[in-house]
Structures are given as C-alpha cells and as structure tokens.
C-alpha cells in the first residue's frame, strides 16, 4: 500500500522550474512571516490573542514537546480541535517536528476517529477535553485503547498537553518540502473516508495563490467561521492564507450570524468564507442586525453550489463582494476573480487557481471516461483534473486509486460541470455516490454499511433529497428483514449510537418492502440509487 503517489519526476521538475513548488515547509513559512510581522496579531480566540511571535514560540515549544514525548518525524497524529488558537500552534508544531497531522473535524465521533487513527497508524491524538457538550478526550482515549499504534492523548488544558506545550524550544531539522506534510480527509463516496496526502510544496502553492487571488494583505482580518480543519477555511484562503499574508485570523467558536457579526464588528473583519446555507442565514440576519458589518470586503461562498438567487443577495445584504469558490481536499480549487464581471461571479463557481491546472470535461455517462473523451465545448460532462496541487493517489488505497484516477493521473472529481470559454466552471451536478448536505459530505455507502449492521435491515440505499435550506438532505431507503421492521426513529438512533458524525445520521428513513425495479432488472446498488434518486426527485 502506497503512502504517497508522487508526481512523475519530469512533471515535478516543471512545477519547480515554473516556481510553483518552492522548497519551503510550513515551519519555514511561519519563521519567515514572523521575521516580517512579529508584533502583528496572528490569531484571535475567545479569550486570548497571539502575535506572530507568540504563535511562532508556541509552535517551537510544541515541536520540541512532541520529540520529548517520543513522537518521531514521519509519524502521524490525529488532530481533532475546535476553532481555538491552539489549532494553529499544534499544527505548526507538528509540522516543525516533521510529524503529519491527520485532520479530523469536530463533528467526527468514535467510528470515524478510530478509522483515521488505524488507517494512518497514528501515534497520538491531540484534542480538547470537552467542547460544545461533547467529551472529545473521552472518545480519543477510547480510540487509543482500540488502536494499538496510539500511545498518547493530549487534550488541551490537561497536564499532558501543558507539558507538551511548555517544552524548551530546540533546533530541529526542517522536513523535506517535497514530502507529505499532512493527511486531509476526503468527502468520500465509498465505504470509509479516504486520507489525502498533501505535500508542503503543493499545498503552499495553493495557499500563496489563494491569498493573492483573494487579495489578502497584512491589514486583512480573516474570520474562520467554519471548522478550521476543513480545506476551505484552512486554505481557501483560510487561516493558512492569512498566516502567509501576515494577516490576522479570528476564530469563531460557532458559525451563527450572532456570533459572527459580533466578531466582525469587534475585530473589523475584512474577509470570511461560508457554505451556502450559512450565507443564506447571514443574509437574513443582516437585514435586522445592529452590528456594524462595514469592514467586510469579501465573502467567499463554496463547499456546495451557491444558487444564483442567493448569489445575487449576498453583496447587497452584507455590503461586500461575493467570491465563489469550488474546491476539493484532493486539490483543485477554483475562484471567481475579484475583477470578474458580475455575470461570472453570480453564475459560475470560478476558474482554477493555476494556469497549469489541467481540466477535462468528459463523457458523463461513462464512469471510466478518460482524459481524451471530452464533450463538446459548453456541454455538461464529468470533471477530471490534474495539476501542481492535485494529488495523484489517496493514502494507502491502491485499489480505490485504480478507479479514482485515470491511467494518466487525472483525478475523477465526480462533479458534473459545464465550462465557459473563459475557463470558468459551472457545477451542475454530481456523478458520485455522495450527498452534499450544505457543504458537509456524506458518502452513501458509509451510511448504508452502518444501517446494514442492524439485525433488522436486509438492504439499504442512501440518496439525496432536495432541501430548501441545505440544498440536499439524506434519505435512507431500507428493506427490513421479514417480520422485524425497525422504525425510522430506531434506525436513526442506531446509526447515531454507532459513533458517527451527526451530519451522517439519515434525515429521513423510508422503510419499504422492496426497492423499485430498475427496468433492467439489475440489483446493483448503483442502479438502485439511480432509481431512488429519480423517485425522490419526483416527490
Ligand atoms: C470543499 O472540499 P471537500 O473535499 O469537502 O468537497 C469537495 C466537493 C467537490 O468535489 C464538490 O462536489 C463539492 O464539494 N463542492 C461544490 C462547491 N465547492 C465544493 N459543489 C458546488 N459548488 C461549489 N462551489 O468543499 C472545498 C475545498 C476547498 C475550498 C472550497 C470547498
């Protein structure tokens, strides 16, 4: 099983020659930004604010503390932290020690955490004791008991973490910038979420360009409203874009309009990024807020499709410019540009970051369509991409990689798009078995497997149903074992109690006697889901 599928060596040489890959690590980035902006605010939390010098020193101490705790360069550590300043000191500390963070989201529970830890053979978990009513450290300790490689749990606020964070800084060798820096999570469409290996070189290129495309300057103030471990608030342009620019990051403990607007006024926030349902909630709240939002210049909206109607309301309601972003943890990120005409800003999801992001829009009816099976210009097709910051393979997933990538290295995004002459993409749908619940991704098969673990369930198929607020919600169609039909409420509780993120618990459960016939008489999951999706749309 390969940890990392590198780019072909000539391709890598070109990306270096063209200046995309600069041989800088995240640790070195923080050092150079701190040299230029030591006294400026780097991060603002609920109870504290750190300058770049403060962040830099904390990251040095944590790096030393990790080494003292016996964690070695090249090892993996699962990081599950809410939006608190320690997210940054921990992650930069891990980077300086050459240890790879595995980015779990706060919503993840035992089942997901155990999978990330065992799949990456993590040495430790870094989390908080408690947050928002959930006992994170308790779950992490349970995972440590289940997964042999996990030797330690460091929960912010506990003795173990304090010791880690107060070690005396020491000189450490800078890791290889071409090596894997961290493992990001895929939204997934198959059984369990895949891990995405990103290198210092490739990710920093996307961070630098994102900061430039979003016009970040040292005077900018970025509000991280979404959970920061996600690729969007992490790097589009996100907290890392802010660090790169020497700008301040304000961490919102919750994304609701009341919290966000209070922080926008107090910290004079200039830029933020939200998913469409949150944008809609902010637009609504803005009409009656007493908070001063006049500092906001740009609001990025992405993670799920931002419909035209919502897109049109954002600028007038919030008094800022809209920037659409269509990205994926696997790599490719598209932005509408700040000087694009309104038609493109409102009607497309942007164009790629890099002139060397290769985009192919191919036959959508053939799941194996290759890079040469392009549809006519302007037609809808399946999006394939490769480029200087798009992975060539998932972490330790050789079988899956054989179908998720074309033989010539294009990633099959599973998104259906139409390309404009300008290169801007319009996302019109999805070919992958995934539900996009307002930006939160649910792999149909993962939830089906949880449902099928119930003794009363014979078969299950999870599909998207349109939803006014979230765009889509999940509906599980379930065929019960004869005479044992569990109720919808029982099944939802069953899935929740298996320790999965709440957003994966099916919104609707329909217990049916049998799945609708597919016409061709096939019983494959794919056919079933297609039939059920059609049925759900009719309703
Ligand atoms: C972002 O990353 P992921 O990995 O959670 O999800 C990627 C998928 C895309 O393949 C697409 O299906 C969907 O999310 N998506 C959008 C979208 N942005 C993402 N679909 C329609 N319109 C959009 N604007 O979601 C992500 C990563 C970096 C930046 C922004 C979003």
Summarize the model shown.
With 539 residues, the chain is an alpha/beta fold. Among the domains are: 26-199, Rossmann fold; 434-538, ANL, C-terminal domain (GMP Synthetase, Chain A, domain 3). The chain is 34% helix and 24% strand.
Tell me what you see in this structure.
This protein is α/β, with parallel strands linked by helices. Among the domains are: 26-199, Rossmann fold, CATH 3.40.50; 434-538, GMP Synthetase, Chain A, domain 3. Helices cover 34% and strands 24% of the residues. It has 18 helices and 24 strands. Strand 11, helix 12 (276-286) and strand 12 (298-302) form a beta-alpha-beta unit. The structure holds 5'-O-[(R)-(benzoyloxy)(hydroxy)phosphoryl]adenosine. 5'-O-[(R)-(benzoyloxy)(hydroxy)phosphoryl]adenosine (OOB) is lined by residues 187, 231-232, 236, 302-305, 324-329, 333, 349, 413, 415, 427, 430, 436, 441. 5'-O-[(R)-(benzoyloxy)(hydroxy)phosphoryl]adenosine binds at residues 187, 231-232, 236, 302-305, 324-329, 333, 349, 413, 415, 427, 430, 436, 441.
């Amino acid at each position: 099983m390969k940890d990392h599928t590198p780019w072909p060596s000539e391709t890598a040489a070109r990306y270096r020659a063209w200046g995309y890959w600069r041989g800088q690590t995240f640790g070195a980035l923080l050092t150079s930004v701190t040299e230029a902006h030591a006294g400026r605010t780097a991060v603002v939390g609920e109870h504290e604010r750190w300058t770049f010098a403060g962040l830099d020193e904390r990251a040095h101490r944590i790096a030393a503390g990790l080494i003292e705790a016996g964690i070695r360069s090249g090892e993996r550590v699962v990081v599950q932290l809410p939006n608190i300043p320690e997210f940054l000191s921990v992650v930069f500390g891990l980077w300086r020690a050459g240890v790879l963070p595995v980015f779990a989201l706060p919503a993840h529970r035992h089942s997901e955490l155990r999978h990330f830890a065992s799949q990456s053979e993590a040495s430790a978990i870094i989390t908080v004791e408690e947050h928002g009513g959930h006992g994170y450290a308790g779950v992490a300790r349970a995972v440590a008991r289940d997964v042999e490689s996990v030797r330690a749990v460091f929960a912010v606020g506990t003795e173990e973490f304090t010791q880690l964070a107060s070690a005396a800084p020491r000189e450490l060798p800078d890791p290889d910038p071409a090596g894997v820096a961290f493992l990001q999570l895929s939204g997934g469409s198959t059984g369990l979420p895949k891990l995405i290996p990103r290198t210092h070189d490739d990710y920093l290129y996307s961070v630098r360009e994102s900061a430039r495309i979003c016009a970040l300057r040292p005077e900018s103030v970025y509000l991280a409203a979404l959970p920061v471990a996600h690729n969007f608030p992490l790097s589009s342009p996100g907290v890392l874009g802010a660090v790169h620019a020497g700008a301040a990051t304000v961490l919102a403990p919750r994304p609701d309009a009341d919290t966000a607007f209070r922080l926008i006024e107090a910290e004079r926030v200039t830029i933020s990024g939200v998913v469409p349902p949150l944008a809609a909630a902010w637009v609504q709240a803005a009409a009656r807020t007493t908070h001063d939002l006049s500092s906001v210049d740009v609001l990025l909206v992405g993670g799920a499709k931002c419909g035209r109607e919502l897109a049109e309301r954002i600028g007038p309601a919030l008094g800022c410019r809209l920037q659409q972003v269509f990205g994926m943890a696997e790599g490719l990120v598209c932005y509408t540009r700040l000087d694009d005409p309104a038609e493109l800003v409102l009607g497309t999801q942007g164009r790629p970051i890099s002139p060397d992001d290769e985009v192919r829009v191919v036959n959508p009816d053939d799941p194996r369509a290759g890079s040469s099976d392009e549809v006519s210009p302007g037609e809808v097709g399946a999006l394939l991409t490769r480029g200087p910051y798009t992975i060539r393979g998932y972490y330790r997933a050789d079988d899956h990689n054989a179908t998720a990538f074309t033989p010539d290295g294009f990633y099959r995004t599973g998104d259906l798009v139409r390309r404009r002459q300008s290169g801007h993409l319009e996302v019109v749908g999805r070919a992958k078995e995934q539900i996009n619940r307002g930006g939160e991704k649910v792999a149909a098969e993962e939830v089906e497997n949880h449902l099928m673990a119930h003794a009363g369930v014979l078969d299950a198929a999870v599909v998207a149903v349109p939803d006014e607020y979230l765009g889509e919600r999940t509906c599980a169609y379930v065929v019960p074992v004869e005479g044992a039909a569990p109720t919808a409420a029982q099944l939802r509780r069953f899935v929740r109690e298996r320790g999965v993120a709440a957003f994966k618990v099916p919104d609707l459960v329909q217990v049916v006697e049998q799945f609708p016939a597919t016409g061709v008489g096939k019983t494959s999951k794919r056919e079933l889901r297609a039939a059920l999706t059609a049925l759900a749309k009719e309703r």
